[in-house]
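Ticket #4471: structure export looks truncated?
Reporter: QA, pipeline team
Priority: medium

Steps to reproduce: submit the single chain below to the structure queue and open the exported record.
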Amino acid sequence: MSQELAYVIITPYSLYKSRTGGILARLITRTGLDLAGARMFAPTEQLVKEYSDAVVSANDPQDRRIQELIHDYILQNLMPDPKTHRRRRVMMLLFRGEDAVRKTRAVVGHISAHRRGGETIRDTYGDLILDEHDQVRYFEPAVLAAPNQEEAETKLKLWTRYSDSDGGVLENTIAYPAGEKPQRTLVLIKPDNFRFPTGRPGNVIDFFSRTGLYIVGIKVHRMSVAEAIEFYGPVREVLRTKLTDVVAARAKTAIEKEMGFHVPAAEERRLGETLGPLFGDHQFDNIVKFMSGRTPGEADGNLRNEPGTEKCIALVYEGPEAVRKIRDVLGPTDPSKAPPGSIRREFGQTIMVNAAHASDSEENAEREIRIVNVAQNNFRKVVEEFYGPI
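Actual output as written to the record:
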């Protein structure tokens, strides 16, 4: 069966209600598809009008009444706020694989006033409430997705044309009370969450939703060796000095076991001073390989700047005290020391394989967001690799 590209749009209401993690977890685990791209949009009036018009289509097998219901919903809920003119947030997710459109649609579910369970995303998070005259009282689809390949291509090409102007790391989409100063921070959902199709990426996002912060940027990213070296550069010198005592003790134990003589304290210290920096460099290389798939020594020349083989999700969160709130939910670097209910306690394994990274200051957040380049339009790249230039 041929490869397909499918999309899911998470609506402003689902984002506002912090349902993003639950939606993503279901899509990954129940489709088994590759999460190929993601981008935040703040649609302009022009994009919303074009998209709403495209929803009503003879190629869409859905009932015409449902098409018109979705058309009206898009105009009312994706359009910039008529009072403040502030644009609304939506998240676009791209899934790639065999039979991707049908698989995605099956997990999304259909729109019905008579749902009986929570099998699909719309069963759980969507609503269609009719009055006694069979007229719509309330409608929230939770997500939007194409019903077939042809419709998926049409909508993806449309959103791609606006992906530079209307997408990226969003500005001025959240209203804050007077005097409240928002921060921004970066989260990386690390490669250990993507070894096979699992709900972990969505579950981690769900944990972060406890902060009450807003997602204003998202990118599916494959970190290059050069990016990993720059990103974790401040850690390198710490590793070269911090591990001296550990290395000295291990070296002393190994020598005494293998060679059968006692190592005095002074020589043990010298062993640490000599071997500590080498061991620190080795650990740093391991971090680079974990994040990019290659050590610095395995990536000479142009390969150093090429996207790595490991996948992560980069997220920009915004809100008051964003740095502290995110790190409180994340927990300390060592999962064994993380408190119950923290992400690293629930999902971490070791100091390196610990589920997620979060910036430790506003200054580092700015630096890390720049290195990972969350605003970069990988969404366009994925769509154009599939359909050709748009």
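Status: closed, not a bug. The export was complete when the record was re-opened. Leaving a note from the reviewer for reference: The CA atoms of residues 185 and 362 lie 7 Å apart.
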